[in-house]
Design brief:
The structure holds three protein chains of three kinds. Chain A is built from three helices and no strands. By secondary structure, chain A is mostly helical. In chain A, helix 1 runs antiparallel to helix 2 and helix 2 packs antiparallel against helix 3. The radius of gyration of chain A is 17 Å and the shape is elongated. In chain C, 67% of the residues are buried. In chain C, strands 1-2 form a two-stranded antiparallel sheet. Classes of the chains: A mainly alpha, B mainly alpha, C mainly alpha. At the A-C interface, helix 1, helix 2 and helix 3 of A face helix 5, helix 6 and helix 9 of C.
Chain lengths: 101, 742, 493
């Protein structure tokens, strides 16, 4: 049985959902952030799969853009998490709720 | 069109320059240097008046060159409403009638300006006076020059304003009993005129409704057209309302008559004119004797077509025509005012009632269809009445100076109720004020209708007209009798006045010390006296069969403006009263005889009475004269009955109807109490059960909603992510639903 | 599979390059400058913005394209639509700078990085306006967002600032991931990410489930940036916690950029799906209007109130977007007009908030406005005027904007949406005018800290609002031209 494009789409959908649920359910900022990376990578998987199945180079190029962006986000995100940890001694996002209402 | 016609706007420009000069800077000139300032202020205004006069003379020449054909000088479109067919231009109609009026206005006006320079000397509001005088000229010229009723009305209101301003010129001066005599007189004039003005504007509106225009020429052409086509009904412009033509014409002409009774002081709106003597005497002489008060006559003469058509229509139907009413009003006023003049002591009041009486002559003449005679009398009257007023002014001036000297001579001299205008304190001024006396005599004889002075000719023409048509028009006999009696009265009260003022012994120290006025005041008197003597030449009738080159000048002059029904053949001509062109010797002899006898009688009756100022007047023995006319019946009716009842009615409206009923009862009891009851009900009954929720509902629901939503704003990032996630899911379901269902 | 380098004309993207170059230059200069010297950064940023603005305006009516790969469809277009948006972003930057200066000094934030990050963020926004390819839209979204995450947290170790940055970052990244997944789906369905080609593909093959799924994800991503309900919840917290000038900048710049993305996607890539998205947009708009305006009533903190107000205004712009489905020219141009007018009004209001804030987090309460009118009559008058403009009372730019938006919606027969817009405008009067009421009717101790730069900027914005209120025609014509050029490109592509 060959893996058709549908399998890839399904896989990335599942990855995306796992990522999204992780964002909703996990409390550690680091893990939430990693879940977001997972969502991005599910999109990357989709790009590559489509590029492959459609025989179009563009999709593969786009992946690089997404990876670059993800890297930039990691740089900023980790810095933020570190600063917060310094102040609060915690990276539990449920403890970050000074601002509400 | 002769190029001189283009000068016409200048007759308005010159006076308004004078107004601006005296209104804006005149006062500074006067305040800065009294002597030079007065010279500037007075002469500037005078020169503006004279310039206007010169322009009018040029227009006169232009009319000659134009073979007396009327010209319209269009200035601009004034009121234009395209859809409604309303287009009223601001245009001047230069025809023989308007130019005749302009000549009187600017001519007499200029003379009075000169006189005023002397008369107003030393007055603190010197320049204001001249500003008003020039403003009056401006509006009066608008009135006579306009080519339509609306422009005429602008002038009409404007001269009314000037009259008000000049009557109240010394508004701060109080009467002896502390009332605001002058201010009240000004208000009285304003109110009486308002009644007439209201009728005037109604008449103009009706004119437009019936004829679709307010321009004289269009209105008259249209009126003649309707008359000739024997249409019984007319449709009012822009409406579906139909109206009988005769009714419409009657209404318009009667409304114009009411307007004229206001402005020209006829029964029953005449009451303001005697009080108007509170203004400076030259202003009285210009506005309240020579010019403004004649604008009612001008209005009727100008509308002669309408009045003649009204007469013709009523002959058909056998009812009384509006022209007849005009004539009756005029003749009754002439007699009524003449009788009142018997009972007056104030030198100016006598002249005022005389003016009312003479205006009655003119109105009567216009009502009888003797338009030329009316205009003729208007012109001669303008000269001799202006002369008399200014003579009276000179006398008053002399008396005041005399009183001044007396007061200086006798320190602590007790004021014995002296009034410089009261004839009882005068007497024997003949020798002290010779120029004034002689000119005054000329004026008085002219007014009394003594041959050969101007008044004789003009008054005689009116009487002749009434006499000549007696057979055809039954009413004219009544008119003739009324007018003849009025003429007798005129001669009598003028005789009384001459005798009391200039003959006999002075009845007061002031009269003994009176002296002649300055040349700047006596020169205009002499000038006007000349006109008062010879003005009859303007329209000299044929004597028997003799005809002079001068004869009927005015008649020929005016026949170009006053509708020439002669041009129209059968139908109309038969119903127009004819004016005899030659002197009717019997009538002339009768009127002259009556005048002479009456005047002689006056001199006899007052030969040595009253001896002192306190003596009763000899005519008080005549039963009914003083008890009825001396009490000014119509004034009394207004002041004792109408005004109190009006005030009572106003008070009733104000206190009872408005306050007690409308405010206290209706507003407080009905509306407020109902509201309070309802509010109580709402607050205590409904509100308690939650109307608050409906009234303030939106607010509290919003607040409640806001608080509810705020709770979801937990501050947890995961909640926010959930919101995004759920939003995404809902969107996905919405977008994918059609595909799933397929 | 070959790869040929695209055609590139850098002159066309010069406005962005100038901004990026200025930003990078600043970073470098900062290395060599002694710590005490800080003033240069302001001038560098301002000059960069001005130069970019000049170059940007010079390109008006050019309809340039560049970065053209072998498929012949440019990734970057410089049509009037892009130029108009670029001008909006550059003006935002130019107005934020004078508002920031004294605030930054007060809060100890005066670092060259602030201005550099501002420039980088603006460059991202500009890219968004010019993007003709979804992947570029995504890149632009990130380029504008990442500096904003940092700016929000610049006041560390103040916990509110950090919290603001953290929330913004996590949720922003989350929405970016959704957005990029949407792009992947659209790519899979149409074999392309170039906007005109997506349009062609849909025209040729019609819609399918994958495209509309992608569309939904794209709408979520853009909806997050514009703060449309229910993707709005980050807004109040982030706006409150961020340094106020950053809030001001975000509330205008990021929102407009988000709408640029939304318009590109909805109007240029997938207008043929308008039957699908118009109802969704209208419902989002309704929710946004109601929730934004209603919750704003109960806010005691002016920054939070303005945050909800900015949500509400996103709702009004969404009305225009919904109207654009039926009536592209009126809808898009009224949206552009609304954003341009909103720029001046909202920045002006934030200018006053900045002036009122004594130190970070102090003086942000509505009660702090009490009695300001007595001490600062002119600025209070300006504030009152901005509040009127935000409410939409004539003669203000806010009124003209609402007028055009409602007009477009009526033409598109979205009567119920207009009705909701009008009702919520009335509700909004309650909280906007309360500020005026507090300023004029009460006594209080509040003091404004104003420099000449801030006063000048507020004055400029008040005048601009007035001009837009009195003479909206000129700007409306510009927005119409901008719309026309974008749709013409669409037709040509």
């Amino acid at each position: 049985m060959t893996a058709t494009i549908d399998w890839y789409v399904a896989l990335s959908a599942i990855l995306f959902t796992i990522g999204a649920l992780g964002v909703l359910l996990r409390r550690s900022a680091i893990i939430v952030f990693m879940c977001i990376e997972l969502m991005l990578n599910s999109a990357n998987l989709l790009f590559v799969a489509f590029a492959r199945s459609l025989g179009d180079l563009h999709g593969q190029v786009l992946v690089f853009f997404v990876i670059v962006v993800a890297a930039a986000e990691v740089a900023v995100g980790l810095a933020l998490i570190v600063t917060i940890f310094r102040t609060k001694r915690s990276i539990n996002i449920d403890e970050i709720n000074l601002l509400k209402g | 069109m002769n190029e001189l016609f283009n000068l016409a706007p200048l007759i308005l420009v010159f006076p308004i320059i004078g107004v601006l000069f005296n209104g804006l800077v005149g006062r500074r000139f006067v305040d800065h240097d009294r002597k030079t300032g007065e010279r500037w202020s007075g002469w500037f205004a005078t020169i503006m008046a004279l310039s206007a006069f010169v322009v009018v003379v040029l227009l006169n020449l232009a009319l000659h060159a134009n073979h007396f054909h009327a010209e319209t000088v269009m200035l601009w479109d004034w009121i234009v409403i395209p859809g409604q067919g309303l287009s009223i231009p601001w245009a001047m109609q230069i025809d023989t009638l308007s130019v005749a009026m302009m000549l009187v206005v600017t001519g007499v006006g200029s003379i009075i300006h000169i006189y005023s320079i002397g008369y107003m000397h030393g007055d603190p509001d010197y320049s204001r006076y001249f500003a008003y005088l020039n403003l009056f000229l401006f509006f009066m010229l608008i009135l006579v020059a306009g080519n339509n009723y609306l422009v005429l009305f602008v002038g009409w209101e404007g001269v009314g304003l000037c009259s008000y301003l000049l009557i109240g010129f010394w508004h701060e001066r109080l009467a002896k009993d502390g009332t605001m005599k002058n201010a009240n007189a000004a208000r009285k004039a304003m109110i009486a005129n308002r009644v007439g003005d209201a009728a005037m504007i109604l008449g103009i509106i009706l004119t437009f409704w019936v004829f679709g225009s307010v321009e004289f020429n269009h209105v008259f052409e249209e009126a003649i057209h309707i008359f000739e086509s024997h249409e019984e009904m007319v449709t009012l412009v822009s409406t579906n309302i139909e109206m009988a033509f005769s009714t419409a014409l009657f209404a318009i002409t009667v409304l114009f008559l009411i307007a004229a009774t206001g402005k020209s002081a006829q029964l029953v709106l005449h009451v303001w004119l005697p009080d108007a003597m509170a203004g400076p005497t030259p202003a009285s002489s210009l506005i309240h004797a020579a010019t403004m008060v004649t604008s009612g006559i001008y209005l009727i003469v100008r509308s002669n077509v309408l009045y003649e058509l009204s007469r013709a229509l009523s002959v058909h139907s056998g009812t009384i025509s509006s022209s007849d009413i005009v004539a009756l009003v005029g003749a009754s006023t002439a007699l009524y005012a003449g009788l009142i003049a018997f009972t007056q002591y104030d030198i100016k009041k006598v002249l005022a009632y005389s003016t009312v009486s003479q205006l009655g002559f003119m109105i009567a003449a216009a009502g009888m269809g003797a338009y030329v005679a009316a205009m003729f009398h208007l012109i001669t009257h303008a000269f001799f009445k202006a002369l008399l007023f200014m003579g009276a002014g000179s006398v008053i001036h002399g008396m005041e100076h005399g009183h001044h000297e007396v007061a200086h001579g006798h320190h602590g001299h007790d004021d014995d109720g002296f009034d410089p205008q009261d004839m009882r304190y005068m007497g024997g001024l003949r020798k002290l004020m010779p120029v004034t006396f002689w000119t005054y005599l000329v004026g008085a004889l002219a007014l009394a209708g003594i041959f050969p002075f101007a008044g004789f000719w003009s008054k005689d023409e009116i009487l002749a007209h009434a006499n000549a048509n007696q057979g055809e028009y039954g009413l004219f006999l009544v008119l003739f009798i009324l007018l003849a009696l009025a003429a007798v009265c005129t001669a009598f009260y003028m005789g009384r006045q001459l005798r009391m003022v200039f003959w006999g012994q002075p009845r007061h120290e002031a009269a003994r010390h009176a002296h002649e006025s300055s040349p700047i005041m006596t020169f205009p008197l002499v000038l006007l006296a000349v006109f008062g003597t010879v003005a009859g030449l303007f329209n000299l009738p044929k004597v028997l069969t003799l005809e002079f080159g001068w004869s009927l000048t005015l008649e020929h002059w005016l026949e170009h403006s006053i509708q020439t029904f002669e041009l129209m053949e059968e139908g109309i001509l038969a119903h127009v009263p004819h004016t005899p062109t030659s002197l009717i010797v019997e009538v002339a002899a009768l009127s002259l005889g009556l005048a002479l006898v009456s005047m002689g009688l006056a001199f006899y009756v007052y030969r040595d009475k009253p001896k002192t100022a306190a003596d009763p007047d000899p005519t008080q023995k005549i039963p009914g004269l003083w008890s009825v006319f001396g009490r000014l019946p119509i004034d009394s009716f207004y002041m004792k009955l109408l005004v109190p009842w009006f005030n009572r009615f106003s008070a009733w409206l104000g206190f009872k109807f408005e306050w007690s009923f409308w405010h206290d009862f209706f507003h407080e009891r009905v509306i407020r109490d109902t509201f309070v009851w309802f509010a109580d009900l709402s607050a205590n009954v409904l509100d308690a059960q939650g109307v608050d929720g409906i009234v303030n509902g939106l607010g509290s629901v919003t607040r409640w909603l806001a608080d509810g939503i705020r709770v979801s704003q937990t501050g947890y990032a995961r909640t926010y992510a959930l919101s995004v996630f759920l939003g995404t899911v809902v969107l996905l379901i919405y977008f994918l639903w059609p595909y799933v269902m397929r | 599979m070959e790869f040929t380098p695209p055609e590139i004309n850098l002159l066309i993207v010069a406005p962005v390059l100038i901004i990026m170059a200025a930003g990078s230059l600043g970073m470098v200069i900062d290395l060599f400058m002694p710590d005490g010297k800080k003033g240069w950064a302001v001038w560098l940023a301002a000059i960069g913005l001005l130069l970019a603005l000049a170059q940007n305006i010079a390109l008006w009516n050019g309809n340039y394209e560049t970065f053209i790969p072998q498929n012949g469809v440019a990734m970057v277009v410089m049509d009037n639509f892009a130029i108009f948006l670029n001008a909006t972003f550059l003006l935002t930057g130019l107005l934020v700078i004078p508002l920031s200066r004294s605030y930054l000094q007060r809060t100890g934030l005066e670092k060259p990085e602030y201005y550099m990050l501002l420039l980088f963020s603006i460059s991202g926004m500009m890219l968004m306006g010019m993007a003709n390819d979804l992947i570029l839209v995504f890149l632009a979204l990130e380029v504008l967002s990442i500096p904003l995450y940092i700016m929000c947290g610049m006041l560390w170790p103040r916990p509110e600032s950090e919290e603001s940055a953290m929330k913004y970052f996590l949720l922003g990244a989350f929405s970016s991931a959704i957005f990029v997944f949407g792009i992947a789906l659209v790519y899979g369905a149409t074999t392309t990410t170039a906007i005109p080609l997506i349009f062609d593909a849909v025209a040729a093959n019609g819609l399918n489930a994958m495209i509309v799924t992608g569309l939904a994800f794209l709408m979520v991503g853009a909806g997050f940036k514009v703060a449309a309900v229910p993707f709005h919840m980050w807004t109040p917290d982030v706006y409150e916690g961020a340094p106020t000038p950053v809030t001001a900048f975000m509330s205008v710049g990021a929102k407009i950029a988000g709408f640029a993305a939304l318009l590109r996607v909805l109007m240029l890539a997938l207008p043929q799906a308008s039957g699908e998205w118009v109802t969704a947009v209208a419902v989002l708009s309704t929710l946004t209007l109601i929730i934004g305006n209603v919750v704003a009533i109960r806010q005691g903190n002016i920054k939070r109130m303005l945050a909800y107000s900015s949500i509400a205004h996103a709702g009004y712009i969404l009305i225009a977007v919904a109207a654009a489905a039926d009536n592209p020219s009126a809808g898009v141009s009224s949206a552009l007009f609304y954003m341009f007018a909103y720029l001046f009004t909202n920045l002006g209001a934030f200018g006053m908030v900045i002036a009122l804030e004594r130190n970070y987090g102090e003086g942000n309460l509505l009660d702090d406005f009490k009695g300001l009118a007595k001490r600062h009559p002119w600025l209070s008058l300006a504030m009152a005027y901005f509040m009127l403009s935000l409410t939409g009372i004539p003669p203000t730019g806010g009124f003209s904007a609402k007028f055009y938006v409602f007009g477009a919606a009526i033409e598109a027969e979205l009567y119920w949406l207009v009705l909701i817009g009008v009702i919520t405008s009335v509700i909004s009067g309650y909280y906007y005018l309360r500020v005026v009421y507090l300023m004029y009717m009460f006594d209080g101790e509040g003091q404004l800290i104003t420099g000449r730069a801030l006063q000048f900027a507020v004055f400029v914005m008040a005048i601009s609002t007035l001009v837009l209120g009195l003479f909206p025609e000129g700007l409306f014509n510009l927005t119409a031209e901008a719309t026309l050029s974008a749709t013409r490109l669409l037709a040509g592509g």
